[in-house]
Amino acid sequence: xxxxxxxxxxxxxxxxxxxxxxxxxxxxxxxxxxxxxxxxxxxxxxxxxxxxxxxxxxxxxxxxxxxxxxxxxxxxxxxxxxxxxxxxxxxxxxxxxxxxxxxxxxxxxxxxxxxxxxxxxxxxxxxxxxxxxxxxxxxxxxxxxxxxxxxxxxxxxxxxxxxxxxxx
Length: 168
Prior knowledge:
By secondary structure, the protein is mainly alpha-helical. It contains 7 helices and 2 strands. It has helices spanning 21-38, 41-55, 57-76, 94-107, 111-118, 124-143, 153-156, and strands at 3-5, 82-84. It has a two-stranded parallel ribbon with strand order 1-2. Helix 4 runs antiparallel to helix 5 and helix 4 packs across helix 6.
């Protein structure tokens, strides 16, 4: 399994305004994935910088560390390739929103919803590791004062039906 930069298909799914924490997280996570996949230290530094503006430098490194653990857990047990856009894109893929929704569900204590969402991208063997990593990320974000607001995880679970379709 690998993370693929998304291809152009379907209709638009704009990300929230830049001041909203989810947008900042999404951009930072994209920079982190770009840096990790392309072995580009400057992209990873950009991720820390973007996130540091939201959480502070120390928390930014911790958030990115937990995000990295979550991505690796998903990657080890993926049921399909996941898609993401380049950091500068103002649109979101269903996979990007799905990963954020898993973390949001963990923040909200919606364990069943988080598990159902995680099953869309991981096999049963990877559920525990994925949910543990998402919970750690959720708690770290909460301790930095960041509460994800994607609606209820149940409302976002409609993303599961989209499968690997990428919106742009």
